Amino acid sequence: GIRLIFSLLLNPKLINEPYRFIAQQSKLGLGTIGTLLQELEKEKYFSRYNNTYNIENRDALLNRWTETYYAILRPKLVQGRFRFASPKDRENWKNIKLNQVFWGGEPAGALLTKFLHPEKFTVYSDMPKTEVMKQLRLVPEADGEVELLKPFWNTENTENKFPQTVPPLLAYAELNASMDSRNREI
Question: Is 98 exposed, middle or buried (0-12, 13-18, 19+ CB in 10 A)?
């Protein structure tokens, strides 16, 4: 359900598309779409009139998604922690040409708003860890400043709209869930 809500928050028109298309966009099984939409309608997040759905309470849905994502889905996506190989690599993080890698959290906030200097780095990628490590010049470290996660959304859409970052909605969720006041402000 977390994946479906994320897809619908990113693209509210998706709710009225065929279930097969919704399933593809949200990386879910086709059989789960109808049940999840009924549940969200029952909880008053959506209404249906003449077989057309409308989002009723976007702010409440966004808050629910943010809390649920951080508590339930995000921990399952973590692949490891790393640090930059050198201080120079850390300093030049913005200049790295990314290939199938997306900045999340603080780096996404920095790139999207130009008002944040990241202390912790979140990276999403479907590529093998070793490839991400080469691309970003990372070395494993248990308490490292770089956290690698698997994407849970259809990244094909991300590459077109946000070539270096996760969708702003995901960056918002990560920054908002952080206990750092400067992140919450951004």
Answer: middle
